[in-house]
Amino acid sequence: MQAINLGIAEADRAQIVEGLSRLLADTYSLYLKTHNFHWNVTGPMFNTLHLMFETQYTELAMAVDLIAERIRSLGFPAPGTYSEFGQLSSIPETPGVPKAEQMIQLLVEGQEAVVRTARSIFPLVDKVNDEPTADLLTQRMQVHEKTAWMLRSLLEV
User: Who contacts 146 (Cβ-Cβ below 8 Å, separation ≥6)?
Assistant: First the structure.
């Protein structure tokens, strides 16, 4: 394999990839949870939530590709199995089919978990001047913070 010379040491790239792999796992786990809730939501907010969850899982599906491609750009393989994601993700699976309001709460928690994971990668990214990864992280955090706010707004009484 040809050597990679991006101006970031291999050890630093490996650490960034470890963080991005956790971000990828969290994003994919949240994608799966959101898609599951889209399929199974019921109740008076069905139409609103069904459409909202579809918008959210579609955005997440595109995001996993961006994150995986960044990992590949840094010269490492991206994790891509359920077992790897299960080991790497901070987002627990949800057994059964919760009520709509609980789905919303669980998705808020998932969105916030992704933000925390993304934020945790910044110190190293900043230290080694990895602007493309910083840009990706900033964009992901903006999306997840806004989505968490929108979901929380549905829980207001």
Answer: none
